[in-house]
Design a protein that fits this description.
With 154 residues, this protein is mainly beta. It is 13% helix and 43% strand. Strands 2-1-8-7 form a 4-stranded antiparallel beta sheet.
Length: 154
């Protein structure tokens, strides 16, 4: 009997999938100035293709959290807004991790993200100062070849 329980306990107590490191960068964009954080130049260019009025971009916060596959974590943003991130699948054969995110003011978004690549989301949330909340989310199971915080810079 004890021989049958030991393998079962091993499977329960020793998960086979490593947690996924999720990084969230909180950005505020404005039309009140043209100051762009150099780390956000490429992101700003992409956002401005859809909204030319947004000319100033600044980083408000960056947080990283290891989340086990199947679990969720809620990241605190600005103005008591939150971003819920669920790791739905570990890295697949194409190197993509599946995440489901729930940004403020938007429905759930499920997508496969590549290691070291940020997925930007422009939310409908505006601060009291009129700034637009933008999120950049990255999931990273791999540890080799670290590029730095902002791989969208190319």
């Amino acid at each position: 009997m004890a021989g049958a329980i030991a393998p079962l306990l091993f499977l329960i107590l020793c998960p086979t999938e490593d947690p996924v490191r999720v990084t969230v960068v909180v950005v505020l964009a404005t039309d009140a100035n043209t100051d762009v954080d150099p780390k956000l130049a490429a992101l700003a260019a992409q956002v401005q293709k859809r909204d030319k009025k947004l000319t100033g971009f600044r980083i408000v916060a960056t947080e990283a959290k290891s989340i086990p596959v199947g679990d969720s974590h809620t990241f605190e943003l600005v103005d008591k807004e939150e971003l819920k991130v669920t790791v739905t699948r570990q890295k697949d054969a194409n190197g993509r991790i599946s995440l489901t995110i729930k940004p403020p003011g938007l429905e759930n978004v499920t997508y496969g993200c590549a290691c070291d690549k940020f997925f930007p989301v422009v939310t409908p949330h505006r601060t009291k100062a009129g700034e637009v909340l933008i999120l950049a989310v990255m999931a990273k199971p791999c540890t080799a070849g670290k590029k730095g915080w902002f791989p969208w810079q190319g």
